[in-house]
Fold:
Amino acid sequence: MAKEVNFRTEVKKLYRFLMLFFTLFFITGGGLVYYMNNPDVFDFKSKSETISAIPVEEDEDRIESGIHVRTGLVDAEGLMIVVNNCTNCHSAKIVTQNRMNTERWNTTIKWMQETQNLWDLGGNQEIIVNYLVTNYPPKAKGRRMILTDIDWYELEN
Structure:
């Protein structure tokens, strides 16, 4: 009986020792992880300074080198009307890629109103079309020359 009691006390001592050991192990490990993330934590000679970054508000409608920065459109009369009416639904890249004359722009706007829920532009339509025709006119050449003087032949089976 005495051996059993003695065995139980030894097991309790060993259990307490292991619990203390593992507790110290986890505390030390946590301290090391904290030190790895904050290496200056034990640097008592350094002065702590709080640096606050003030966000700089950028003007979304600023113009640099004659170009509207946000959209890439040319700065000219009617620019903001174009930006406010055209870039609500699509990118300005679509506007710059589709170089058309006055008639085709008016047809395209009418199509967008009939099929794409574009609102009535009223007097702004003339300003928008004038801006687009002036700054993004149709190019004389496409991607390649039109094929002419072709000697076609029949394919035989």
In short: The helical segments are 2-37, 79-86, 92-97, 102-115, 124-135. Strands lie at 63-64, 67-68.
